[in-house]
Every structure is written in structure tokens, then in C-alpha cells.
Amino acid sequence: MRPGILIFTLLVSAWAELLSAKVVAPPAGAQSTPAVLSELREKALHDPLAMQVLEGLTSEIGARQVGSENFVRARDWAVKKLQSLGFQNVHTEPFTLTAWTRGEERARIVAPYPQKLAIIGLGGTLPTPAGGVDAEIVLFKKYASLLEAPPGSLTGKIAVVTEPMAPGMAGYAALGKARRLGPAEAAKRGAIAYLVRSLGNGSTRLAHTGFMSQDAATVPAAALSAPDAELLERIADRGTPVRIHLELASSTHPAQSWNTVGEIPGATDETVLMGAHLDSWDVGTGANDDGAGVAIAVAAAKLATETRLRRTVRVVLYGGEEIGVAGPAYAQYNSKNLKKMIIAGESDSGSEPAIEVRLPAGGAQNPALADLSSALSPLAVRSNSEPSREGGPDIEPLNDLGVPGLEVVQRLDSYFHWHHTEDDTLDKVVPAELSQNVATWAVLLRVMADRNVVFERKAVEPAK
Amino acid sequence: MRPGILIFTLLVSAWAELLSAKVVAPPAGAQSTPAVLSELREKALHDPLAMQVLEGLTSEIGARQVGSENFVRARDWAVKKLQSLGFQNVHTEPFTLTAWTRGEERARIVAPYPQKLAIIGLGGTLPTPAGGVDAEIVLFKKYASLLEAPPGSLTGKIAVVTEPMAPGMAGYAALGKARRLGPAEAAKRGAIAYLVRSLGNGSTRLAHTGFMSQDAATVPAAALSAPDAELLERIADRGTPVRIHLELASSTHPAQSWNTVGEIPGATDETVLMGAHLDSWDVGTGANDDGAGVAIAVAAAKLATETRLRRTVRVVLYGGEEIGVAGPAYAQYNSKNLKKMIIAGESDSGSEPAIEVRLPAGGAQNPALADLSSALSPLAVRSNSEPSREGGPDIEPLNDLGVPGLEVVQRLDSYFHWHHTEDDTLDKVVPAELSQNVATWAVLLRVMADRNVVFERKAVEPAK
What we know:
The structure is a homodimer of 464-residue chains.
Chain A: E1 5-7, H1 12-20, H2 34-45, H3 49-60, H4 69-84, E2 88-111, E3 115-117, E4 119-121, E5 133-140, H5 143-148, E6 158-161, H6 168-180, H7 182-188, E7 193-197, E8 221-224, H8 226-236, E9 243-264, E10 271-277, H9 287-304, E11 312-318, H10 326-333, E12 341-346, E13 354-358, H11 372-376, E14 382-384, H12 396-400, E15 405-410, H13 415-418, H14 431-450, E16 458-460
Parallel strand pairs in A: 5-6, 6-7, 7-8, 10-11, 10-12, 12-15, 13-14
Antiparallel strand pairs in A: 1-16, 2-3, 2-9, 4-8, 5-9, 9-11, 13-15
Helix pairs in contact in A: 2-14, 3-9, 9-14
């Protein structure tokens, strides 16, 4: 458990008292009857807004890495989009960061068999010295084997980890350390560079980038495409020393970023937050990660609030999820104003269908939400009675400050084929699947903003 | 019809007389009884040689463009491989060509929405001037629309053709002109560069290269990945002028190449030729195009000739199919010695299963080959009674000199996802499918080399 946080439960009745101070609120639940939810759900399934938003973002902006000019264009695009759709209180909340910019990158096998290698630098990697590094590799077919290597055993070598990722989120979670922490672990053992098989389930020759630890003891690090990792394994299996030439150029600079916020005001001062992240990696056009989430959030919030509700629905388009800076910035910027934030969720798993919803602890057992399951079941979305888990880097800081979390689980059959690659483009999005997500979130936002329901909260000790 | 060629039929009986001069031949057909073919077929289905050959070629050589150092390494590798497998008369047949070498390539949308574009220069393209070209585009959603554009209508513009290719070989054949001839057609109308949607059926952001006409009136030309072609369509549909920056570097040099030949001698001076091409494009590792064919040819020839046969089985590994120079060179080098070449075929359609065999005209109706159909049917390969069509650039020059052609049609469900891209790597090959091709060709080579069967020939007028 983290310092500064302790868990207790505020009684639902105490919240009800707070709410009673508001008198202009419409009758709780009147806009989320089963019939109304059914109509909303069907409308959302056929609404073109999400696909229009996603088409616009990917066509007119494309890649939008935090700290880049294109991200500034994305921010302006998002502000205009929210304003044109009738969102209120549209604004940006600035914060500072260190931006990292990719330069030219290349790798090749020098010996025994000269061949090009398809790689991509990990996000935030150190550059190699000018002209690159040229060294023998030590290849580990399991990440655990690298961790077992003694200090000094990789001195002057390029460490290569070729462990394939198991499918889906479980695989990503299990092997994530090989990307995030592998460079520092290789450095500790004397390596001068690090190559890791892409975290992904595809077989194209487009490698997957992603965030790596900014540990001072790290080394230049890149991901290999899956075919290239397998090629290196086959060559290494022959028993001859393998030498690789690796060049990674990059630079860093102090930069500003912004979370972009828009609201559809409700009748009370309570808020329901739906997030997605506007930034992407510098490859692909961020269609699934997380243009889809942006489109789902904007469209679901718009559809959910076509009639006036008790609570404000706030859309937050985070500006820096990929390097983990936007969620903390949002939580810090708004830390004094979270008591009336009833629930917060984020769509950041691409555009494949939603399959499961998890409410905060106690939510699934709350009689006031007993009908949610039947409202979602026509979408083939089941209600999981287990409570929502902490969100990703955008939502977790809110969870840590007491805000209950709302979680929608999506299918990830293809997501990790494209994730963090040049292949994350609009053609990979199935419009009907995107709409199914919009319908799921529209129903959830409508229920959460219309009904007088509250959830158990973590409460936070005042900072010392 | 081409000058210098006329069709007539040499009587089968006349050939039989020629053959009777040989006395050391084993009894015709003794090594291709139904029981023997069945055993051969089953053995081939479980034989590891083809996959070993392909693994070696892709791992130890990789990309092997004609005119490159790596092609020379591939040639040496092939000579050693044939020798180590017991092929006789292993040799290389040299010829000269103009080699083309790719340099740095990049493209981006300059306006209205700055974005990178994923492209690859077409094989043999002119380079752009240093620093690239920067011009407004004229986008044609159909190649036919470009052809309808009047002279001068593209002056100073970059012509872009975004027509998608229909699936499989029919689609490739139908749209091939957009790649081969499009650059010259655009040039005729005043364009300064040409971009064409990749000839392919995949949706990755890896564009497909391939041969283009070396017409003097051509312009720098590259293929767009499918997602990028669609992106340009969406942006162009907005009606604002679109500007693109395109940089293509490349160089040409006089070079030598070689066809690599090996034989398993038979008891007569008659020959059955099985080809494949050793060269690949400079992207990928040429696993399907045409490493698979090399592996199939070598393994099928080896398996077919494990017992001594009447006729020599000759494997020719062509060195320059991708630019169309190897087949003509082979035919020219051997033009005086083709009368005893009974039949010639090539495997150059990747590694997906064989589905159909076509014999030369009359072959399907020849009682001496009536059992071939049942020998192949356990492989799910059907005998098409239509005659074989002319082979690709390697075999067609032999057909034109009178040599009958043998054709194996393969499934192409995935071939055009990888064809001529970085994605043509070993992991795309299914070993059991490769073996099914080996079994098909082993049966065919055994029958053709074992039986005293001959086919109608085109005969060629002496050169004037």
C-alpha cells in the first residue's frame, strides 16, 4: 500500500445528504429507465459521430507524440472539435515534461551473415554514440535468463531478449518488464545496448515501440520485429558469434503539454469523468491507441447527454499517456476538486468490442444498478461482479486520490498486432465495433450521470 | 505472334525414334508405377530438406537482389548446397545486366495535413533530384482515369493512383500495368513523379516494390502502402490541394549475374528442367519469393531422382527473375541445346499449397499419363485438362524456343500480403504446405524423367 492513502468507506447516506443541497436536479433516474437506455443504446449503435471523429483525427493530424508540433495541432483540433459539438467549459490544462524525439534508426547483422534488421527505438531511449555501436550479442530466449546473468557478464556486449509475448493483455502485462526495465537490467550487467523482441502478437516486420524506464543506468535500446527476433535466434543457434551494428539517434527537450477538457454540464456540481488519451506514439496515426478512445469518449458523452442530466459529464483528453505524465498532471491540477467526482473511467484499449464492465466496489451489488446488466447484454457486454481495477496511467492517479473507477474491458484479438507500430491506422478499425463501444459507454455515462448513485471511495490522508 | 516463331507439331513417333538410339536407359516407367509414386509422395510430405534449404537461404543470406554483394553470396551458397546434396555438373552461367540499388527513400504530406507516408521506390525507378520534389498531387482512384487524362494535364504535378488490387493472381495481372507502365504514362502527361497504391492484398504499412518499365520517358516512382493510399484518398476528398514531398535515392551500375545449375544425370541425354529464382528484391528475406521455389526445386529434384531415371533432372536457379533478365540469358546460353529438353517448369508462387497441374498441350489426353491425376489427388492437387500457359520471365523464353511447359498452380491466399515487401520472411512459410509442393513436384519430375513421354513442341525459325 502506498503512503498517504488509507481506505475507508463513506456511507452512501452521507453522500445523499450532500446531494440534497442541490434543488435544480431533474428527478434521479428519469433519463435512464430501461426503455430510455434501450433507445439510447440502439441510437448509439447507428450513430456516425465516433467514426467521423476518428477519421478526422487520423487524417488531419495523424501521429501526435507528446512534445511534438503535431501534438499541439492535435490539441487545437480537439478544442475545436469539442466546441463545435457543444461541449462547455472547453479548456486545456498545461503541464511541463521532457519530450523525446526519435531520429534516424538502423540495425544490421554484421557477422556471420550480413542482413538488415527491422527495429524501432524504445520510447525515451538513449541514443547510441554517433556512428552507432558494433558488438557481439548475447541472446536470451527468456527475459528471466537475462536477470539470472551475473554482473559483468555482458560487458561490451549487446544484450538481446527474444521471448515472445503471450496473447493479449495478460501477455503484455507479463512481459512488460522486458521492455520497460530490460535496458537497465542489461546495463547493470555491463551491456552497451539492448534489443528486445517487440511486445506484440503480430508477425509483420514493423517493430513495436513503447515506454522504457528512464533509469540513469540504462543503455540505448530498441525493439526487434518478431521475424527479426526469430532470425537472430536461428543464427545464434548455429553457435557462431553474432555481431550487430546498431544506430539510434534521438534528442530530448523541455516541453509543455496539455490535457484537453470539455463538459456537458449537469444540474448538480457532481461530475462523471470519461477519459481517453489524445497523444500517440510517433508511428502510425494512433487510430487504435488511442484515437478510438477519443472518438468513443466524445461520441458517448455527446449521446449520453442529449437530455439534461443531474451530473456533469466531463471528457478529458489526456496529453501524455504514452510516457505516463498526463494522468498525474490532471490529478495534481484538479486535486482540490475531486470530492464531487463520482466516478472516472477511460477508453484506452482500441476499437475491438467491449465485452465486460466492472463497477467500483459494491456497485455490482447496488440495487439501484441492478438493471445495468440487462441494459448492456444486447451489446454482448457482461457485468462482472468483481470491482473495477485501477486504471492505466491516466486514471490511476485519480483512483489514488479517492475517485472510484469504472472499467470497460475490450476484446484484444488484433490490438497487439498494431499497438505502437506504424500499422496503427484507420483501416484497422471496424466501424460497427467502434459503435458498440460508444453504445456501451453511452449507457454507462447516462446511468452514472442520471442516477443518484455513489460508490465507496478511497480517502486520502492530507499531504504532510 | 512474335517474329521468328511459328508453331507446328513434331510427331511423337519421330521423338521416339530419336530416343531409341539410347540403349542404357532403364525400363521406361518402372520407377513411376502407382505404388512407387505413392511411396515417393508420402516420403516427400515428411521430408525436411526443403525447409532446411529455405531456413538456410533466408537465415544465412537474406535479401539477395541481383547485382548486389548478397546475390554473389547467394550464388556461392547455392553452388555449395547443390554440390553437398550430390547434384552433378554444378556450375554457373554468367551474363551481364544493369543493376539498380536503392538509396534513402522518404515521403510526407506537406499540406494540408503534415504526415509521414509509408512508401517504397519501385524497382529501377529514377531518383528524384537531390533534396526531393515537392508538388501538388493529382489523385486518380482508377488507373484508367490516369490514362484518360490529356497530355499536359499533369504538368508539374505528382500523379497518384490509389486503385486497390483485386485478390490473387487475377488482381495482380489486371493491375500490373499501374506499376509497370504508370510512371511512363504519368510522365507523358507532364507529371514530375508517380505514386501508386501497392500491388498487394495486405493492409500493413509496408509498401510493395516491384519492377517498373525502364522507359526513358519515365519519372521517379514509388508505391504507397495500402493505408497510406487510403489516407491520401480521404484527404483529397476534402477538396483542398494536397502537396507531397518525395525523396527517392538510387543508383545503377553495370553488373554481372549468374544462373546456377545442377543436375541429377539420367541414362539418356534428355532433360527435364525445374526452375526457381535465387534472386529476390532487396526487402524481406525472399522467403516466399522465391526462396520457397528454390527449396521446392532442390528438394523435389533430389527426392525424384533417388533412383536412377532415364532422363536428367536439371535444376536451374535463376539469377535475375525480378527484373526479367535471367530467363532470356538462360535461353540464349543454352539455345543450341534445347532439343532434348522434354519439359520445363518453375516454382515461383510462394509456399502455399499446390492446387492444380497443367501439362503441355495434349499431355492431359496422353494415355501414358492417365494415372497422374490419381497420383496427385491425395495431395488435393487436381489435373487441369487445359494446357499449361507460358511461364513467367524465366520459363517463357524456353517456351518461345519450343520447350513445352509444365505448370503448377498454387493457392495465393496470403502471397500478395507479403510479396515484394519487408514482410516476406521465413515465419510466413507453413512447413507442411511447403512439403505439399515438394511432393507435387517430386511426383511430376519422377514421371517426366522416368517415362518415355514427349510433348508437342513449338518449333522456332532459325534467326535471320
